[in-house]
């Protein structure tokens, strides 16, 4: 018995290994990650960790002793460079940078994603940083401590969370976003507008429809950036958060189907029968039945899809149909997202946007798709509950702010 | 280090050392206590770390905050007076020996 090899030891990989044991699989499990740390939670990296209010030891996903107790072999600080599948089509061997040969019967790819790189003149100088790993965040928080001015490239979640931390530390902060609104891929314009105003109220200089075209240096460190409109902004540090790209090198070696990520079905199966994949590296059918493949970069999906992948390896069929949810903390603003609003044709705003307590419910053909809630946990939970139950909250009812959303949940009529 | 006693569904006790300031959820997840999932990492967003605090400790632990209150109301099957989200209970020496029970729904 050579067991299962799980490549990638972050949220999805750890969950997959533990869930496989929970499924009763007693064959060897090896979990390998290229970072030098015990597997940890990534979300705090752009929040409390960057701010200096928590440390890695508080972010551990599972204690090493616990993994050992469950007979899960953890290898850190080593990377799988090459995979050779056996001629029989079942199992194979992985070779690592340090020269380990890891034989396996079944393979799970939880290899994650890496930051998309900004390639403009000067973008390789000291002081241009990305934020994905604990080491990235450690370097960044040291640099940030000494900086007085910070430029953030990218107005998505990572960029805005980093901007919020820098601003809370009293830095002069400029956010440069190429698109015409913030968090454009994830929320509706009404929520983008809110975050634009919220950051500006707190003193962040947000520039939309603008790009960094050059990074200037002095003594081989960043000194300023030039924007596409010709503006030059002096800065000590530039944080780039312009999205991630799934790590697909190993999947390419294996000849797996790719489409902006490793293509998996709702059982986390890749195009090769003995290989599953989960987490940020995958694209999958819409978990709630919408059209097309989606790539979900979230803890929730990593955990849910990893459980599905483990079940598949254990011979059970447990589709990944969990309601997606997501959160982002910026300043004292807690954004919670339930469902996927993509493709909406109508929305309802509840609460007081100017008081920074509100929610937006999204609909398509009258059907509830999801909600974005800012400091409105009850609305978020009500929508999540409705979606989980396959129920709905009619738009008319949602618009009535006097009635709590939880009292508006009604079952979806069959055949309606 | 303050200890937390978890009573799992079968009635078995698991005693775990928590770090100072660590949440009950984090201590449970690190040590693989079944039924405490903590999917959101302690963010008060998922309601997968619901516990019942023992009657004699509930006053020391205190009541749920507003956000937590909403999650408990909507996110758990059987809310009781002693319901808390384990991610919102920070361990201190004063809480050493805290006993919490895992609800049936999460087991």
Question: What would your notes on this structure say?
Answer:
The complex is a heterodimer of chains A (416) and B (107). Chain A is an alpha/beta fold. Chain A has 10 helices and 28 strands. Chain B is α+β, with helices and mostly antiparallel strands. The radius of gyration of chain B is 12 Å and the shape is globular. The chains are: A alpha/beta (416), B alpha+beta (107). The interface between A and B is medium-sized, with 31 and 24 residues.
Can I get a quick summary?
The complex is a heterodimer of chains A (416) and B (107). Chain A has helices at residues 11-22, 48-51, 64-69, 134-146, 157-168, 189-201, 249-254, 299-313, 377-388, 395-398, and strands at residues 4-7, 29-33, 72-76, 80-85, 92-96, 101-104, 106-109, 113-115, 128-130, 149-153, 172-176, 205-207, 212-218, 221-227, 232-234, 237-240, 244-246, 262-263, 275-277, 282-285, 293-294, 325-330, 333-339, 346-352, 357-364, 367-374, 391-392, 410-411.
What is the topological layout?
The complex is a heterodimer of chains A (416) and B (107).
Chain A: E1 4-7, H1 11-22, E2 29-33, H2 48-51, H3 64-69, E3 72-76, E4 80-85, E5 92-96, E6 101-104, E7 106-109, E8 113-115, E9 128-130, H4 134-146, E10 149-153, H5 157-168, E11 172-176, H6 189-201, E12 205-207, E13 212-218, E14 221-227, E15 232-234, E16 237-240, E17 244-246, H7 249-254, E18 262-263, E19 275-277, E20 282-285, E21 293-294, H8 299-313, E22 325-330, E23 333-339, E24 346-352, E25 357-364, E26 367-374, H9 377-388, E27 391-392, H10 395-398, E28 410-411
Parallel strand pairs in A: 1-2, 1-7, 2-3, 7-19, 9-16, 10-11, 10-16, 11-12, 18-20
Antiparallel strand pairs in A: 4-5, 5-6, 8-17, 13-14, 14-15, 20-21, 22-23, 23-26, 24-25, 25-26, 27-28
Helix pairs in contact in A: 1-8
Chain B: E1 3-7, E2 13-17, H1 24-30, E3 50-53, H2 58-61, H3 66-75, E4 83-85, E5 98-101
Parallel strand pairs in B: 1-5
Antiparallel strand pairs in B: 1-2, 3-4, 3-5
């Amino acid at each position: 018995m050579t067991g299962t090899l799980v490549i990638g030891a972050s949220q999805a990989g750890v969950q997959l290994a533990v869930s496989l044991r929970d499924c009763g699989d007693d064959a060897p499990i090896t979990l390998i990650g290229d970072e030098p740390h015990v597997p940890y939670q990534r979300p705090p990296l752009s929040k409390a960790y960057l701010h200096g209010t928590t440390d890695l030891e508080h972010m551990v996903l599972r204690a090493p002793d616990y993994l050992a107790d469950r007979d899960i072999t953890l290898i850190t600080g080593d990377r799988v460079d090459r995979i050779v599948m056996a001629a029989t089509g079942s199992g194979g061997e992985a070779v690592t940078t340090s020269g380990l040969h890891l034989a396996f019967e079944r393979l799970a790819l939880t290899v994650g994603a890496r930051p998309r790189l900004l390639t403009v003149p000067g973008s390789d100088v000291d002081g241009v940083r990305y934020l994905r790993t604990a080491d990235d965040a450690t370097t960044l928080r040291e640099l940030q401590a000494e900086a007085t001015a910070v430029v953030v490239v990218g107005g998505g979640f990572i960029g805005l969370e980093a901007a919020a931390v820098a601003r809370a530390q009293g830095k002069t902060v400029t956010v440069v976003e190429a698109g015409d609104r913030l968090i454009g891929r994830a929320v509706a314009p009404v929520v983008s507008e809110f975050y634009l105003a919220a950051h500006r109220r707190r003193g962040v200089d947000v520039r939309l429809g603008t790009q960094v075209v050059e990074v200037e240096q002095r003594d081989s460190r960043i000194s300023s950036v030039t924007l596409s409109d010709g503006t030059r902004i002096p800065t000590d540090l530039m944080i780039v958060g312009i999205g991630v790209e799934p790590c697909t090198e190993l999947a390419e070696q294996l000849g797996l189907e790719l489409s902006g990520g490793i293509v998996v079905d709702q059982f986390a199966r890749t195009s090769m029968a003995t290989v599953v994949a989960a987490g940020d590296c995958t694209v999958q059918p819409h978990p709630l039945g919408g059209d097309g493949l989606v790539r979900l970069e979230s803890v929730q999906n990593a955990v849910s899809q990893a459980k599905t992948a483990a079940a598949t390896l254990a011979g059970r069929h447990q589709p990944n149909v969990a309601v997606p949810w997501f959160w982002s903390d910026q300043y004292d603003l807690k954004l919670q997202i339930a469902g996927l609003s993509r493709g909406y044709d109508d929305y309802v705003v509840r609460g007081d946007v100017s008081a920074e307590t509100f929610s937006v419910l999204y609909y398509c053909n009258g059907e509830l798709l999801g909600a974005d809630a800012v400091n409105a946990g009850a609305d978020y939970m009500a929508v999540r509950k409705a979606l989980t139950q396959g129920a709905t909250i009619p738009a008319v009812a949602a618009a009535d702010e006097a009635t709590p959303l939880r009292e508006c949940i009604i079952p979806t009529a069959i055949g309606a | 280090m303050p200890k937390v006693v978890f009573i799992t569904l079968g009635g078995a006790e698991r005693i775990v050392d928590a770090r100072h300031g660590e949440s009950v959820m984090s201590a449970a997840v690190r040590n693989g206590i079944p039924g405490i999932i903590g999917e959101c990492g302690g963010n008060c967003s998922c309601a997968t770390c619901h516990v019942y605090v023992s009657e004699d400790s509930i006053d020391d632990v205190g009541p749920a905050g507003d956000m937590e209150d909403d999650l408990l109301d909507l996110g758990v099957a059987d809310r009781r007076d002693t319901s808390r989200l384990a991610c919102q209970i920070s361990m201190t020496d004063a809480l050493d020996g805290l006993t919490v029970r895992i609800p049936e729904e999460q087991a």
